[in-house]
Amino acid sequence: MKTKETILYDSYYSAEKENDARQYLFDEYADEEKWNSPQDVPDYKIFREIELQDDIAWEGIKFELEILFKSDYFLLTGYCGTWHGNMEGGKFINSLSELLSVIRHLDDFRIIDRNGHFIIEGSHHDGSDRYELKRLTRKGYELANNNYFANTRELHNTIMKNNLFSGLPHFAQKVYCL
Description:
Structural class: alpha+beta
C-alpha cells in the first residue's frame, strides 16, 4: 500500500520555507523597497515573514483541532525522548488544551496525517518525541470509562491496537478533503 502523507503543520526551519518567503517578499515589495533580486531581501524580513506564516498556519490547525475534540474522545500514545532513553506513555484527550499540555515542551514539531493516522513528531533539548492520536469508538469509550480512564500501558495498548476500541481520525480527509 502506498503511503499517503499530508503534513498538516510544520514549525521546523527549512531552506524551502526561507526561499519561498524570500521570493514572496521580493514579488510583493521589490519596487517599493528598490530590491533588484530576491537576494536583496534582508534576512530579518524573511524570518519575520516565516514567523508570520507559521503563526497563521498554527492558528488554522488549532481551530480545526478544537472542532475535532468537540465530537469525540481520543487516546494519545507515544514516547518522549529524554537524555536517558525514550519514556513511553499515553493520555486520554478530549480538548485542545489537553493535547497542548503534552506537546508544550517541544521546541519544534510537525503534525502529519499518514494514511489516516494522526502523528505528532517533535524535538526538544533532550531528544525527539513521537505520538499518535486515535479516536475512541463507543466501545473504546466504555472500556476507558469502566477503567476510570486509567493511564496504564495495558489499557492504552488494548485500545490502540484494536479497531473495536479505536479508529483512525482521518483528519486530513475530514477537514481538508484530502
